[in-house]
Specification:
Elements (H helix, E strand, L loop, with lengths): L2 H8 L1 E9 L3 H12 L4 E9 L6 H7 L3 E4 L5 H9 L6 E4 L5 E2 L3 H12 L3 E4 L1 E4 L5 E5 L4 H9 L10 E4 H6 L12 H11 L4 E4 L5 E4 L5 H4 L1 H15 L5 H13 L1 H15 L6 H4 L3 H4 L1
Parallel strand pairs: 1-2, 1-4, 2-3, 6-10, 7-11
Antiparallel strand pairs: 4-9, 5-11, 6-9, 7-8
Helix pairs in contact: 6-11
Length: 286
């Protein structure tokens, strides 16, 4: 067998769905990151919900497949896209976030090596212009159950991929009940179903852009309602050990909370204590 044939057999494939709605300001960066992935074939589907800016023109320029989903629920759009995918591995990413060029290959390799159903890694966070703010470490898989039961996701969805068979078995994201937190509910169902989780302990794999116009900020009240609903359900089985695991994870990330305070304060020229630090980095734990 030739070296070229061996290389082609070694390259894995994955499908990513990007939900969009007037995402022209940041979509180029997200598409560039996916198209720049090394040693893996990335299939991209953009599911738009009626953009009136240049979002669809950008998709045409990048020669990306586009679908339509009714506005009002991001996870409905994600489901529309994922149902069109037939690769073994799946993922989704928001139109204002991105992945590092070696991230997907590393995640897929870890998943294949461990035969996991879900693989996740650490995540970096930036401001709205892409300036680095801080990193967050995800917990070990053996702590995920406890952390989930305290109503925290434990890892950033941008930094996770999952198998097609798992998505089918769980019948996708619950877009009937959740508009803002269906990712957390999906992974909690996956854990309860006996799915295997694996972590990539090395360098961060994704970058989460924090800005005023993101959905979690614009609909913070609705997200809190969903969070409280989920807490009411999960808290039925929450133990002291679960809260201890959560606190240990937070302590592990204490240097990153400090880094965020210092970095944001330096950029602003004055002390900045954000709500996410006070609440244990809400955007990461949601």
């Amino acid at each position: 067998m030739s070296d070229l044939s061996q290389k082609s057999l070694a390259i894995s494939s994955i499908s990513y769905v990007i939900p969009t709605l007037n995402s022209a300001a940041t979509l180029d960066m997200t598409l560039y990151a996916l198209r720049s992935q090394k040693d893996v074939e990335v299939n991209i589907i953009v599911v738009d919900s009626g953009s009136t800016d240049e979002t669809l023109e950008i998709c045409k320029r990048w020669d990306v497949k586009t679908l339509y989903a009714e506005p009002g629920n991001m996870y409905r759009a994600i489901n529309v896209g994922l149902r069109e995918c037939n690769t073994e591995w799946l993922g989704y990413i928001n139109s204002d976030d991105w992945l590092y060029s070696d991230s997907v290959a590393r995640l897929v390799a870890q998943g294949n090596a461990t035969n996991a159903d879900v693989v996740y890694g650490h995540c970096d966070y930036t401001d709205g212009h892409g300036r680095f703010l801080y990193s967050m470490k995800a917990p070990h898989p053996n702590r995920l159950g406890s952390i989930f039961r305290t109503s925290a996701l434990g890892f950033a969805q941008q930094a996770a991929i999952f198998r097609h068979r798992l998505y089918q078995n769980l019948q996708g994201f619950n877009d009937e009940q959740y508009r803002l937190s269906a990712d957390k509910e999906f992974y909690f169902r996956a854990l309860n179903s006996g799915a295997s989780f694996a972590i990539l302990f090395e360098l961060p794999v994704a970058c989460f852009r924090l800005h005023e116009n993101q959905l979690s900020n614009k609909q913070a009240q609705s997200m809190e309602v969903e969070r409280q609903t989920m807490i009411a359900e999960l808290a039925k089985n929450t133990s002291f050990y679960d809260w201890l695991a959560m606190m240990q994870w937070k302590l592990t990330n204490a240097p990153h909370y400090l880094l965020r305070f210092l970095r944001q304060s330096l950029l602003a020229g004055k002390p900045i204590v954000t709500k996410s630090i006070q609440a244990g980095t809400y955007s990461y734990l949601r």
